[in-house]
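Researcher: I need the complex structure. Ligand is glutamic acid. Inputs:
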Amino acid sequence: MNDKSRLESGGDAAIVTRFAPSPTGRLHPGHALSAILAHDFSRARGGTFLLRIEDIDGARSRPEHVAAILDDLRWLGLHWDGPVLYQSQRLGLYEDALDRLRGAGLLYPCFCTRADIAREIAASGSAPHGMGEVYPGICRDLAEAQRTRRIVAGEPHAWRIDMAAAVERAGELVWRDCEGMDHRADPLAHGDVVLARKDAPASYHLAVTVDDAARHISHVIRGVDLLPFTDIHRLLQALLGLPTPVYCHHALLTDESGQRLAKRHGAPTLEALRRAGVEGHAFADDLRAGRMPVGIGAAKG
Ligand code: GLU
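Model: Output:
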């Protein structure tokens, strides 16, 4: 359905949701829940549902995972609007956003290895942090001449945001959830996160923020495990002058004992369920109804 016919049919063309899997492995039941919720939210309102493949991580993304994801979604009975979007084809957009942030003096090159960072954190004896380890700022105060010399010499580097400077620039930041509640974003808690990786032209945070805005996503529907990152996405929206969608973070799937149903706990992939003959529509309906889906336990993989 195009925007015009959707409007004529009384739907809300302003509602746009997306499912944005990373093709670094097969999908699991938790992914299916995110996809179903995003799909159904949009369909119930006559909106648009997009599929975006987050494949900027060239080393870990695989075409065979993409093919399986498309088959899994069809098996669940989910249909997306328009072409599948691939982040790997949109690198210029991320580069433009990086240039703007760099031009505003908010990024710096970071030459640290994981070992450098771990050593510095151990030496400082800092207590573990709720957000995981926060970058200790080793490269933040390098002299400009030294930065240039190391870049020109071809030393591998990431680009980090100077979080304190960025937060000062952006001021107070708020985002709204599906219930209409406002939340204050706290990007400082994450420290100087990476926006362009050594091995990838953009980080998840930058690409997701730029793409959600470019595709006019009105409601971001995703698992609560990604909730903390909304702090960072909200900050980037403010710095880049992008609109803020409504955020809906759903609870993660758990088994009977309340354990998160994740791949490391042996939950089957959707592909394994498909191959075991589980009926996709029934599986999706169980997830919609909040029931433990048919077939879990019937297949391993
Ligand atoms: N690509 C991310 C993932 O698979 C999800 C991105 C998002 O929904 O913001 O975890």
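Model: Summary of the prediction. The chain has eleven helices and ten strands.
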